[in-house]
Amino acid sequence: MRRITVLAAALTLLAGLLPAVLPAVANAAPPGLGAFVVSQAQFDQMFPSRRPFYTYNGLTSAMGAFPAFANTGSDTVRKQEAAAFLANVNHETGGLVHIVEQNTSNYPHYCDRSQPYGCPAGQAAYYGRGPIQLSWNFNYKAAGDALGLNLLNNPWLVERDAAVSWKTALWYWMTQSGPGTMSGHSAIVNGRGFGETIRSINGALECDGRNPATVQSRVNAYQRFTQILGVPPGGDLYC
């Protein structure tokens, strides 16, 4: 009888502990994925005029598809990468204000008919959208294939779904070198500096003295964001 009494007491104690334990388990970060180094308050400080479409939760949700983002290297490097990504986003969208490219006369130019899949959504359907302004039919095709989405036929999803919009930006940041030699992610984690991230995004139009004002705009945002996160910006800020 004593064994039964002790067991019952243990079960009662465990039942009392479970309500406190379960919320912590439910809120724990997935294995290998730490909490985002930018808090909601810091994000709001960085983007005081952002459109409601660009939610913090949309970004953190999208990060699940790219667990190495802002989660590689030292705490300083992780914060520098987050600041670098968001600084480029800041420039591309006017402070997370613009969801789509503002110059509508450019829209028909982003259809490369030499691609075997063509432009099934229409000649003018592949204009810039989202935090890094995804454009061109071949980029929508590649991003959609990587994310398991049919963006070639439905590019509008990038301007209608916040998580998808952030995912396309992270896809470009993590995997594409653009006119540069490496991705933005690789540039930061390998110590190549913020300037190399500008080259990977829009180097053909901005780097090597082509448009110093826009480069300076990106650098200013990066310096401001690293200050908010409490880390040095590092060297090689320009391209």
From TrEMBL:
Keywords: Disulfide bond, Plant defense, Signal. CDD domains: chitinase_GH19. Residues 39-239 form the Glycoside hydrolase family 19 catalytic domain. Residues 1-28 form the signal peptide. This is Glycoside hydrolase family 19 catalytic domain-containing protein. InterPro entries: Glyco_hydro_19, Glyco_hydro_19_cat, Lysozyme-like_dom_sf. It comes from the Bacteria.
